[in-house]
């Protein structure tokens, strides 16, 4: 399974971004995020940045990943998913529109 990791850009040189990932220097490909600048947070999958994140989104993702690491090591989730616990489930827009139109089956 591929999991995106939020990383903060230390420097940018063309499509190369320098970051610290898991305490080690790493390089991410910025081809898909040409707007990314030093200091920005990006969501990196397999060495490529796929999305520029807000600092809040990066913190939420990092919290969730840390909670999952803790759970896998025998601990608990803590408040890793507090942002989800505080709201009710939501349908994707196309399903909500169908429900609002009275459709309950295909």
From TrEMBL:
Gene3D superfamilies: 2.30.30.140. It comes from the Bacteria. GO terms for molecular function: carbon dioxide binding; iron ion binding. GO terms for biological process: protein maturation. Belongs to the HupF/HypC family. This is Hydrogenase expression/formation protein HypC. It comes from Rhodobacter viridis. The lineage of its organism: Bacteria, Pseudomonadati, Pseudomonadota, Alphaproteobacteria, Rhodobacterales.
């Amino acid at each position: 399974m591929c999991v995106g990791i939020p990383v903060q850009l230390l420097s940018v040189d063309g499509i190369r971004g320098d970051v610290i990932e898991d305490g080690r220097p790493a390089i991410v490909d910025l081809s898909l995020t040409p707007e990314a600048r030093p200091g920005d947070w990006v969501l990196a999958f397999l060495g490529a940045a796929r999305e520029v994140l807000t600092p809040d989104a990066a913190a939420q993702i990092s919290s969730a990943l840390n909670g999952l690491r803790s759970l896998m090591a025998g601990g608990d989730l803590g408040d890793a998913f507090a942002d989800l616990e505080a709201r009710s489930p939501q349908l994707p827009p196309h399903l909500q529109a169908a429900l609002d139109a009275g459709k309950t089956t295909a």
